[in-house]
Amino acid sequence: MLGEGILKGLAETARNFAGSFVSAERLTTVEYPEQRIAPIEATRDFPFLVYDGTDPEAGLRCVACQICEKECPPKCIYIVKSTDKKPDYVGKLQIYPARFDIDISVCMSCQICVEVCPFEAIKMDTAFELATTDRFGGLLYDKKELSKSNEHYHAIHPTEAAEVDARLAEEKAKGEAKAKAAAAAALAKAAAPAAATPVPKPAAPAATVPAVKPAEGESKP
Amino acid sequence: MIDKLDQVFVLLTQWVVGFLPAFLQPVAVVVIAVAAILVTFPGLFAICVLLERKGLGRMQNRIGPNRVGPFGLLQPVADGLKSLTKEDLVPLSADAAVHFLAPVFLVVVVFMGYAVLPVGRNMTLVNMDAGLLFYFAMGASTELSVFMAGWSSRNKYSLLGAMRAVAQMISYEVPLLMSSVAVVMITGSLSLNAIVDAQNVYTWGLPHWYIFTPWGFAGFVMFATAATAETNRSPFDLPEGESELVAGYFTEYSGFKFAEFFLGEYVGMLSISGLGATLFLGGWSAPLQVLGFVPSWIWFFGKVMLSMCVFIWLRGTLPRLRQDQLMNFAWKFVLPFTMLNLFVAAAWRFMGDGWLRWVVCSAVLVIAYVVMGRVGMRRKHFGPRSYRYAE
Q: Which of B43, B48, B124, B250 is close enough to B118 for a disulfide, judged by CB 3.0 to 4.6 Å?
């Protein structure tokens, strides 16, 4: 009959109205500043730099390779390479970033910097209460503000951080094995100096690498 | 004492006026009454806005505003301050004079309607013999304001909204009048005070409200439908349909002028609720004879607020109609039904007392409702929709 649907609809809204006072699970609203829910693991907003250990200067994983700077679509990353080198987490001497700035007012949270980083040095943070009264300086984060410990990474993205740690440990082990093998080979070589064939092989890649690098360097500025 | 409480506002006015010289007294009475109307109904408007926001929230399983003041009770104050402090923009190509006059005209006209509404016993500002006629004259003038706003803004959304509003309001003006005419036929008077007095009669402690008669009930339903459309309320809020017309005829209004439109809409709703209560729900009379000791104005405002709650409930429930559905409903269902209701009311008047008129009138109305519903829905099929996309 005409009007039946209207009455059914009115009954439904009346049920919602009354129900919202009785059953708490109907109300899905989280009253934010007082109530908070834990962010889901895949949450991400702006990148941060991971460091191992306790010292953000010494333990920073970033080697200032500038891949993220080049890949960043809105160009919000600014890196200045250091002139000296210091040992990284494997113990190898590496360049480190003298400056590493991210303008989070420009960042679009695309996570491309994270995906391209070969050193697992840049990851996405979940902190979202970043409001500031200074919209230029306050939103331009420098290296000190960006550096956060691996423990922090574990706290915000536990699964991902565990995977990354496993991968790094594997790489480190592989590196150590390789170093050990190389040392053994060097020992063997020293013991029997006979073979001189592997000389041209490393020469070929060494020739191509400098050919690419200046080209990229030119396109940057 | 109880009589004093019932007449508290009347006595208060007389007391205040008593201090003035005799030649000023008639003017002072009117000024005080007008001031009371201008304070009470915007106050109710604030309460309604809060009720609406809270109620709609609950209907959608939300909490609603609860940040300003305890339980969000000061939300209307915050809304008002916001509107007052906003910049008042007038488009460069708009007709500035008409653009300015439209909201003023709306508010004035809407408040004029209250002049004839009996708010309580002896509480009518102007006891006009043709009160109902005056009310409808004022109510119909709101269309002019809407069209002024839409036309002067020089904006296609405003104009479309205004066109829709005029088409809709004229279409629903007719059934609104027709359903009220039945009441006039039975009462034999256009005076709203006489209409309330006619309903303020009790048999076995039950009131003689017109809604408790077959023609009165049918008339009330049609009146409520037409009143909803007349005040541009959801589901008939096409003139200001946010999803297609930004804000309809008041798209180009901001700041206090926007607030005036908002005020006009709600005060208009309150006023038409008051008229509906007066015509069908016995105005300020008590629902039971034993409750007659409660002051009359409490009953009037209670009825008005109750119908406001129904307005909000409907808004929370129904989706917006399409323009052709709106027109079809007005001209093919509501209008014929109110016409039939006139004949039923006439039959009721001339069949005399007794059970026969109850049976005959109810049967005619129910059969007509069912048949018209069936005929109207005959070619409608409510299956899954089929979509055809552009190649």
A: B124
Question: How far does B308 lie from chain A, in Å, by closest CA?
Answer: 15
Based on the number of CB atoms within 10 Å of its own CB, is A82 exposed (0-12), middle (13-18) or buried (19 or more)? Answer: middle
| pLDDT bracket for residue A206 (50, 70, 90) | very low
Is residue A27 less than 8 Å (CB to CB) from chain B? yes
Q: How confident is the model at residue B33 (pLDDT cuts 50, 70, 90)?
A: confident
Contact A3 B373 (CB under 8 A): yes
Domain contains A117: yes
> Which of A1, A10, A27 has its CB closest to that of B61?
A27
The residue of chain B nearest to residue A2, with distances taken between CA atoms, is: B373
Residue from the list A1, A17, A31 with its beta carbon closest to the beta carbon of B58: A17
- Dump pLDDT digits (tens) for B280-315: 988 888 888 788 788 888 889 999 999 999 999 999
Count of domains forming chain A: 1
Q: Are the beta carbons of B376 and A2 separated by less than 8 Å?
A: yes
Residue B73: φ, ψ to 5°: -70, -20
Is the pLDDT score of A168 beyond 90? no
Closest CA to B211 of B351, B326, B125, B306: B306
How far from chain centre, in Å, is Cα B248? 20
Kindly state the tokens that stand for B105.
Answer: 């005209």
Q: Nearest CA of chain B to the CA of A173: how many Å?
A: 55
Of A6, A28, A29, the CB nearest to B318: A6
Which residue out of B315, B317, B334, B372 would a mutagenesis test of the A interface target, given it has the greatest number of A Cβ atoms within 10 Å? B317
Tell whether the model's pLDDT for residue B275 goes beyond 60: yes
Is there a contact between B58 and A20 if contact means CB atoms under 8 Å apart?
A: yes
Phi then psi for residue A196, to 5 deg, are -135, 15
Confidence check on the interface: ipTM exceeds 0.90, yes or no: no
pLDDT band at A214 (very low <50, low <70, confident <90, very high): very low
pLDDT(A194) > 70: no
Distance CA B311, CA A24 (A): 26
User: What mean pLDDT comes out for the span A121-130?
Assistant: 88
Name the residue of chain A whose CA is nearest to B382's CA. Answer: A5
Return the pLDDT at A218. Answer: 46
Instruction: Determine the average pLDDT of the residues in A157-177.
Output: 87
- Report pLDDT for A89: 65
Any B CB within 8 A of A9 CB: yes
| A81 in reach of chain B (CB within 8 A) | no
Residue A61 lies in a domain: yes
Q: Name the 3-class secondary structure at B84.
A: helix
Residue in chain A lying closest to B369 (CA): A2
Q: The domain that contains A110 carries what CATH number?
A: 3.30.70.3270
The nearest CA of chain B is from the CA of A131 a distance in Å of 20
Phi, psi of B323, rounded to the nearest 5 degrees: -60, -40
Q: Where are the domains of chain B?
A: 81-376
Has residue A52 been placed in a domain?
yes
Give B372's contacts in chain A (Cβ within 8 Å): 2
Query: Is A124 a member of any domain?
Result: yes
d(CA A141, CA A102): 5
Question: Strand locations in chain A, DSSP E?
Answer: 47-51, 77-87, 93-103, 122-124, 140-141, 147-149
Q: What percent of chain A shows pLDDT beyond 70?
A: 86
Residue B272 banded pLDDT, cuts 50, 70, 90: very high
